[in-house]
User: Fold this.
Amino acid sequence: MGIEAGIYSRLSGSTAITALVGTRVYPQAVPQGASYPNVAFSVVTDEVIHSTTGPTTLRQASLEVDCYSQNSYSTAISISEAVIEQLNTNSTVFGSINVENSHVTSAGDLPAIAPTDGSDDYIFGRSLDIDLFYYST
Assistant:
């Protein structure tokens, strides 16, 4: 299992997150036509940590997690808070991945997406940057 599967397992296995988005947790991007609210995550970088003796099994992944809601900015914020609760952690397991430390390094609003159907149903989003240290197998 790679880190992507571990992140998916952690997010989709959270009752707080699934209470807000159901099963709509997506790797990489939200599929076209998907319902809202939802969460999309991507691994931006995944680096091997080196010690003075060479490579180790410790890795550092930088993630981006985007939380979206249709017509509700406050729901996008609530989703991001539930994601933060799951990903701000020490010494735990994401699926079968041993995580040493995971923490949110920054959070910010995404530009609202204007509706194309003439309605007032804007898509609001919140983006989180996360650093995650884990052991590869």
Observations:
- Residues 68 and 125 are 4 Å apart (CA to CA).
